[in-house]
Amino acid sequence: MSGKSLYIIPARGGSKGIPGKNIKPLMGKPLICYSIDVARALASDSHIILSTDDAKIADVARQYGLPVEYQRPAELATDTAGSREVILDAMAWADAKGIEYDRVTLLQPTSPLRTVDDVVECEKRYSPDIDMVVSVTPARCNPYYNCFETDPSTGMLQISKGDGTLTRRQDAPQAWEYNGAVYVINPDAIRRLPMGKFPRRVPVEMPAERSLDLDTPIDWIVMELMMKNNEK
After folding, report:
1. Residue 121 in contact with residue 24, Cβ under 8 Å?
2. Which of 21, 93, 113, 124 could share a disulfide with 210, CB 3.0–4.6 Å?
3. pLDDT of 186-228, one tens digit each?
């Protein structure tokens, strides 16, 4: 693995699905600290940016030992602020500080089961001729088999892709979904394009049992149960 990453941990305050989730204790440790641990296993603190608008989140990170100098602007801390704008602002701050990097690794706090090895595997697959390496897991809904759309002219369901003749999931092309754990991004690519328009995206599979993304209170309950089970 060659190159140097700028690790960005995006942690906006004001979560609605799970209030205060980024600093809510998960198995005795604030959620944000799981991502900090992974980043610090791979880089020095100078190459880790906690992107937050929330003083409480920043304080928890500092108490955990991570210096927090950058502060996300308020206009990038709304429900409508996009990931690209958040990443570009953190990159601009790093550039102004003279921090050298040739890729950006985004670690969302909502994936606490992500491991250092998961990140390393994604970074190994990265090269400057692609736009992004992204962690994925097998999709729960396959557009060739059991994912449907509504025909606007009739209101009836129709298969999303293909002719609807497949009767076994294993006969359908493999479908993937982002699991939100790791994004390794080409800095030049994100300066030019939104991530959804990247033409060169490389997937790295993570198992479903480590791909749970914390979004709702039910997700949190499931996560705690999984982590308690893993401890046994």
Report:
1. no
2. 113
3. 999 999 999 999 999 999 999 999 999 999 999 999 999 999 9
